[in-house]
Amino acid sequence: MNDTIVAISTALGVGAISIVRLSGNEAIEIVNNCFKGKDLTKVQSHTINYGHIVDKDEIIDEVLISIMKAPKTYTTEDVVEINCHGGIISTKRILETMLNHGARLAEPGEFTKRAFLNGRIDLVKSEAVMDIIDSKSEEANKLALSQLSGTTSNMIKNFREKLKQLLASIEVNIDYPEYHDIEVVTIEKVKDSIKELKKELQNVIKESKNMTLIKDGIKTVIVGRPNVGKSSILNKLLQQDKAIVTDIAGTTRDIVEGEIYLDGILLNIIDTAGIRETEDVVEKIGVEKSLSMIDDADLVIVVLNNNEQLTEKDQEILNKTKDKNRIIVINKTDLADKLKLENNDLQNIVRTNANSVEGIKELKDKIIELFQLEKIKTKDYNYLTNSRQISLANKAYESLQEAEQGIKDNLPIDMIEIDLKETFDLLGEIIGETYSDEILDHLFANFCVGK
């Protein structure tokens, strides 16, 4: 990290302004060599300076230069932000000029990566930075801001502190094995502490799954046989004609997607190809894709035709989705009732007529009820929010279980200590107390280049 990096930090396109950002020991000097105005090496930190970026004798653009000197900056290094006009040509010319004068093009997320490596933020806060940029709802934005403020990091640190104290008690036993009373007290303390830690961590993991719904939304798949009204229901939910609707079976051959918000939570809704046996090559691919998407869905809406008897294919779909979060929509209630479901123990049934809006509100209410969206968004946001964090928490929980089982099996206390240390390290990976270069590269590769 001894070099100076540069990147365009605003979306590239026509706009009022663009920002070219530099960070590193030579950031101020590099910009000063291309700047016509004050001597930037002598101005005070956190000031804005007017002038022009030049390439030899040619003026590239009229700019405002923000000078921020280490360590009170985003990366803790010297940071310079060049505020120029928002045209594509001038912005790229300024970037090229900085590169020609010694800066290196930043990798995705490298500014935030430097902030982490320099100790200004931890990994949870680093991920929160990108979550703020990507957030699509107010609730998701609140969640990301909460993580950026450090509440989640502090929760993990407090948990690790309890483990540290527990490990200290074990060390006393290992260092002074001749005192039998110490061993008895240690085993009982470890047993009770592990039980309490397991309960606490299990609650964090459970609630964190709800936080992923706030952040990523609810992946909702609408499935059913052809011509039962799936596309009509999608259009009514979205309140727009997103999917083509006809009386011809097999009209939808590929997925059609849309988004709505329920109680501030995003629903990513996917209308799939009607599930049936077909010789049409294109439609067959669509049917296979429909079946595969059921496995990845957070919610499956199964649509049945009120005007037809339950078919073998309907039953196959019901069987495939029985273990999923599922809502059964009986559509076409304006037609004669021919559908009989007495032999199926089905819950969460909604009746709709997709030719009108009848039943659509009830469908939305059922989704809110099924996911308890009203409760989710009123909870505090002091939880984990992505698969990396939750996966590590699950592994830490498993290590606690191993430690607990070790006590039941009367294993030596130093064997119990190994599992507890593993729990401690895994929790440390969540906030970045321990990490590998490979994990960092993967994490920051998904960031914007200029962030």
The CATH H-level homologous superfamily of the largest domain? P-loop containing nucleotide triphosphate hydrolases
* Radius of gyration of CA atoms, rounded to a whole number: 29 Å
Class by alpha and beta content:
alpha/beta
Named CATH architecture of the largest domain: 3-Layer(aba) Sandwich
* Average predicted local confidence, pLDDT: 85
Largest sheet: 7 strands, mixed
Describe the structure.
The chain is of the alpha/beta class and 451 residues long. The chain folds into three domains: 117 residues, Probable tRNA modification gtpase trme, domain 1 (Gyrase A, domain 2), CATH 3.30.1360.120; 134 residues, Up-down Bundle (Four Helix Bundle (Hemerythrin (Met), subunit A)), CATH 1.20.120.430; 158 residues, 3-Layer(aba) Sandwich (Rossmann fold), CATH 3.40.50.300. Helix content is 47%, strand content 18%. The chain is built from 15 helices and 13 strands. The strands form two sheets. A seven-stranded mixed sheet has the order 3-4-5-6-2-1-7. Strands 9-10-8-11-12-13 form a six-stranded mixed sheet, sandwiched between helices. The protein is flat. About 3% of the residues have low confidence.
